[in-house]
């Protein structure tokens, strides 16, 4: 077994090197190679982690949450295995372990922070038994792959059955997430925004029904989608009292809030956009506090953090600001639109949707997005792009934008040029998964001055 382990690691490292020479991330395929050579490689390497293994799951925000959590542990002087590039299926997790291992199969790591795709949790948990599992939220996503949210919950439930000692760190404002703490009988910690911040449209969320009796939930206050201080009027299901309580939230000029745990309160003040990032930051900090048993230097980590691809990523092209954001489902798009419309400047907006297998080929979800919010005098230019540009144009006609008021093109570079041609003081590009990487490359190229206007 030792020889097979070493051969698998060598093969994985060689495949990573070759992939990156070809300009690819090398964060998934090499893991497939390693698992074929040594099927027990993940179990053998995970067993060498000295302290805790933390898995982060959720529909939206898991890459940001996992990366921030890893950075907080590293800032405390620890060595961490982390799949920071977001390759979150079993091969990507395997690759992350191999990359941190030396040529003789020795892993020198104190912690592992692993982002795991919800549908992959059962496969991953067959090899790894995490000490903690952080769940950010559970929304409708990729209907042709996940189906309804209940099927995603079932993936997580089956995974947790394989690891009965795993403790949970949950977004307590999400009733779909909270049910996992109720029904599994394990240690669970709840992170909640414990005040009304602003109330937004539910976006047709199916999560606003009791997971146990099916009754519509009532809310003392509601944040967005199904998130808020919920109570079922017909059974005992309700939002837990928070173990980590977020309060004093400010959304002007970035994000500010306080987080109280026991008798200690930490203050946060960061130049991030989007209320949803309050949850990402709070969950990552809470996870770090639990595994370290002390507060990390969160402000230093947050000030140095560089957003992952398309997480409100900013570019400057010929003096014009373009902000790129990944949005891949109704909840994500609605939160992105909230951030865009909170910007009082005149703005140009681009919406891009592909329907590749990794995006989800059923795009009926665009009719659940509150695009009506774009019907505002501050929106000066609207561009629709991607393989499903025609569908987006139809959707925007129902918002009130005529065909003559939209720029439609499947060519992403033309779409960016159309965006920049608008009268807005700032431009936003809200795009789904397979659009975001190409769009980032185009924006970087244009930012460097090459090819602008071509």
What order do the helices and strands come in, and which of them pair?
Layout (H helix, E strand, L loop, with lengths): L1 H20 L7 H9 L3 H6 L6 E5 L4 H14 L4 E3 L7 H11 L10 E5 L5 H5 L6 E4 L7 H4 L2 H13 L5 E5 L3 H10 L3 E6 L24 E7 L2 E5 L12 E7 L4 E7 L2 E7 L5 H17 L5 H7 L8 E5 L2 E7 L3 H13 L4 E6 L26 E7 L3 H11 L6 E4 L2 H9 L5 E6 L1 H15 L7
Parallel strand pairs: 1-3, 1-4, 2-3, 4-5, 5-6, 6-9, 13-17, 14-15, 14-17, 15-16
Antiparallel strand pairs: 7-8, 9-10, 10-11, 12-13
Helix pairs in contact: 1-2, 2-5, 4-10, 4-11, 8-9
Structure commentary:
The chain is α/β, with parallel strands linked by helices and 454 residues long. It has 2 domains: 46-304, UDP-N-acetylmuramoyl-L-alanine:D-glutamate ligase; 313-447, Alpha-Beta Complex (Protein-Tyrosine Phosphatase, Chain A). The chain has helices at 2-21, 29-37, 41-46, 62-75, 90-100, 121-125, 143-146, 149-161, 175-184, 276-292, 298-304, 330-342, 389-399, 412-420, 433-447, and strands spanning 53-57, 80-82, 111-115, 132-135, 167-171, 188-193, 218-224, 227-231, 244-250, 255-261, 264-270, 313-317, 320-326, 347-352, 379-385, 406-409, 426-431. Helix 5 (90-100) links the parallel strand 2 and strand 3. Helix 1 runs antiparallel to helix 2. The longest helix has 20 residues, at 2-21. The termini are far apart. The mean pLDDT is 91.
């Amino acid at each position: 077994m030792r020889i097979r382990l070493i051969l698998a690691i060598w093969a994985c490292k060689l495949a990573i090197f070759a992939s990156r020479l070809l300009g690819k991330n090398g964060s998934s395929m090499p893991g497939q190679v390693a698992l074929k050579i040594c099927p027990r490689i993940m179990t053998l390497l995970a067993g060498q982690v000295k302290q805790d293994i933390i898995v982060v799951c959720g529909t939206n925000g898991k890459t940001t949450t996992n990366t921030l959590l890893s950075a907080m542990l590293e800032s405390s002087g620890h060595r961490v295995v982390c799949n920071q590039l977001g390759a979150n299926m079993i091969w990507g997790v395997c690759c992350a372990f191999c990359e941190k291992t030396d040529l003789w199969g020795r892993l020198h790591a104190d912690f592992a922070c692993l982002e795991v795709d919800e549908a992959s949790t059962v496969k991953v948990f067959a090899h790894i038994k995490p000490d903690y599992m952080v769940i950010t939220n559970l929304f409708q996503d990729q209907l042709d792959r996940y189906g309804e949210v209940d099927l995603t919950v079932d993936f997580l439930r089956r995974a947790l059955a394989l690891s009965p000692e795993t403790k949970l760190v949950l977004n307590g404002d999400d009733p779909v997430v909270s049910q996992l703490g109720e029904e599994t009988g394990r240690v669970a910690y709840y992170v909640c925004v414990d005040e009304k911040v602003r109330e937004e449209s539910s976006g047709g969320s199916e999560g606003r029904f009791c997971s146990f009796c099916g009754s519509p939930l009532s809310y003392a206050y509601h944040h967005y989608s199904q998130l808020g201080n919920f109570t079922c009027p017909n059974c005992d299901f309700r939002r837990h009292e928070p173990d980590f309580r977020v309060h004093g939230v400010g959304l002007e000029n970035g994000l500010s809030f306080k987080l109280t745990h026991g008798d200690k309160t930490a203050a946060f003040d960061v130049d991030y956009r989007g209320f949803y990032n309050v949850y990402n930051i709070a969950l990552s900090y809470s996870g770090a506090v639990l595994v370290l048993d002390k507060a990390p230097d969160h402000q230093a980590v947050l000030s140095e953090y560089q957003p992952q691809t398309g997480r409100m990523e900013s570019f400057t092209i010929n003096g014009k600001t373009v902000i790129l954001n990944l949005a891949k489902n109704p909840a994500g798009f609605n939160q992105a639109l909230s951030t865009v419309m909170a910007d009082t400047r005149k703005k140009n907006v681009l919406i891009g949707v592909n329907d590749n297998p990794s995006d989800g080929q059923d795009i009926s979800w665009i009719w659940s997005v509150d695009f009506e919010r774009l019907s505002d005098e501050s929106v000066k230019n609207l561009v629709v792009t991607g393989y499903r540009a025609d569908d987006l144009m139809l959707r925007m006609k129902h918002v009130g934008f005529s065909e003559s008021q939209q720029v439609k093109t499947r060519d992403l570079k033309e779409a960016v040029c159309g965006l920049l041609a608008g009268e807005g003081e700032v431009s936003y590009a809200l795009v789904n998964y397979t659009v975001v990487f190409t769009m980032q490359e185009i924006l970087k190229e244009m930012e460097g001055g090459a090819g602008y206007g071509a």
